[in-house]
Amino acid sequence: MRPKQGFYKNKLEVRFERRRRSQPKREVLPELYNVERLVAKKKVGARSEYLVKWENYSTEQMTWEPEHHLPDTAIALFENPPTPQPEWIAEARERIAIALELGLKIFTQTDATLHISHVVLRHLFPRLPLELVSTAFEATEEDFAAAGLADFTERIVTFNGGRRKIDSPVFIKPFLGKASAFSTAEGERSQQRKLEKVKLTFTKNC
Questions:
Q1: Which pTM value belongs to this model?
Q2: Considering only CA atoms, which of 186, 167, 3, 140 is closest in space to residue 85?
Q3: Which CATH number fits domain 7-79: 2.40.50.40, 3.40.50.2000, 3.40.50.1450, 2.60.40.10?
Q4: What is the pLDDT of residue 7?
């Protein structure tokens, strides 16, 4: 689930311009170009880098850039994004709810991978870290209640009439996956797009 084209531009009447790089310029992009939005953040040693979606360029051409190459307004918008549209929030809740309900029917630990925009995910779970980290976030019952998902953590499973409840915490891990590569009509191999995903891991008790 991705925000529609122009969503961030409509929320902030600022034209982001990328600062001139001190490193050699990219051959495929102009010397000065604009940030459409920052998609993700990671730590590289002591510094932060952001995955940048460039204006008028496809998601295949997103690049990781150090913080000092980006305008403060772009970083501020990433760290304090506008509220996503209600339909995006509702769709994300529905996807998570379905994953929880399916997991309740399985006796063993459940791992579910979902395609959800990290902006929407962080809106539902505001305690999620901004950075993509190797350790999964531990979401409590209170986190799920605040996200409007408390009703889906306990169910009567219809095939045997038993009641199951998801043990707390549920481990939530945002990450970037990759879309499958494909061959173009000209026979060239496409670049792989980075996809915003989340992995849910949880156990149940009866």
A1: 0.78
A2: 3
A3: 2.40.50.40
A4: 55
